[in-house]
Design a protein that fits this description.
By secondary structure, the chain is mainly alpha-helical. It folds into two domains: 223 residues, no CATH class; 55 residues, 2-Layer Sandwich (Alpha-Beta Plaits), CATH 3.30.70.20. It is built from 14 helices and five strands. The chain has a three-stranded antiparallel beta sheet. Helix 1 packs across helix 3, helix 1 runs parallel beside helix 9 and helix 9 packs across helix 10. The longest helix has 29 residues. The chain is globular, with a radius of gyration of 22 Å.
């Protein structure tokens, strides 16, 4: 994937997570004409100045007509609602049957994981974007090493099965921690979400680089599991060889993989970094093709 397109998508997701709470407060505060004190009491310390600023600047809020709604792990687009299948599985484990719209949205997300693997991690996940920014600040005394990748499947099982014992861990999904922190800054009650997000990023900074995304994230574990059957794959051109002693693609992989033989396993998120640094232009991202006479490889 093009580097600038990837960054634009990640920035758009972060802006969306930051903007929806503000838009919700503005809509509620202006259309219902709540007293500023009541608005602040209900939604937190930033609600009152935010509504006043938006009202002075833009007037009444736009009529979205339900075009863009949702929370942290689901988002409605018109009459359709995309949903995180992990959160839905957690609801089902707690014997709570989600609405049909959520089930259909979750099924669509599963199909996208089947087709593209960890593409969400590489292009859309807000926590992944923050983790990459944090990695640039890693000090020299930071711990070198990695966590076993099977830990992601342990956390996946814990999140799904937590409702059976009366708990919920959905809010601990890394991307959800970003959204909850941003909502908390607007609605109040931000401390818990910020501590969770800060702890995750601090572990990436001082302990295992990108350890959350590589080994702990349950969403990444699910996507890599389904990615075993994905349609879009990273493949090497067989008629093009690697340059001697070249390890640029492996060094560029933020997930710690070695793409020299193509996608080494289902962990590849199709981000395209290895393609951009390969001096031989040996790696391509495509739908696998069969070896037919006369077809270039």
């Amino acid at each position: 994937m093009n580097r600038w397109l990837r960054r634009a998508l990640q920035a758009s997701v972060l802006l969306l997570l930051a903007g929806i709470p503000a838009l919700q407060i503005w809509t509620v505060g202006v259309t219902t004409r709540w007293a500023p004190e009541e608005l602040e009491q209900r939604y937190g310390p930033l609600a009152r100045p935010l509504v006043e600023l938006c009202a002075r600047t833009f007037g009444d809020p736009p009529e979205l007509g339900g075009l863009l709604t949702g929370g942290i792990w689901s988002i409605g687009l018109g009459g359709f609602e995309l949903a995180d299948p992990i959160a839905l599985a957690s609801l089902l484990a707690g014997l709570a049957w989600p609405p049909v719209a959520l089930l259909l949205g979750g099924a669509l997300v599963l199909l996208l994981h089947l087709a593209f693997g960890r593409l969400f991690c590489g292009a859309l996940c807000p926590y992944g974007a923050l983790s990459r920014l944090v990695s640039r600040l890693r000090p020299r005394f930071a711990l070198e090493g990695s966590l076993p990748r099977w830990l992601g499947f342990v956390t996946l099982g814990a999140v799904v099965l937590a409702p059976l014992v009366g708990g919920s861990l959905v809010s601990l999904l890394p991307y959800a921690a970003v959204g909850l922190a941003m909502q908390g800054l607007v609605f109040g009650g931000w401390l818990g979400a910020v501590l969770v997000l800060g702890g995750l990023l601090l572990s990436d900074l001082l302990l295992w680089e990108h350890g959350v995304c590589r080994s702990l994230c349950p969403s990444g574990a699910l996507q890599s599991l389904l990615g075993r059957w994905r349609v879009l794959r990273l493949e090497p051109l067989r008629k093009v060889g690697c340059e001697a002693h070249c390890h640029l693609c492996a060094e560029s992989c933020w997930l710690g993989l070695d793409p020299r033989a193509g996608a080494p396993d289902s962990e590849c998120d199709s981000c395209g970094r290895c393609i951009g640094v390969c001096p031989s232009s040996r790696l391509v991202l495509r739908v696998p093709v069969r070896d037919l006479p006369g077809r270039p490889q």
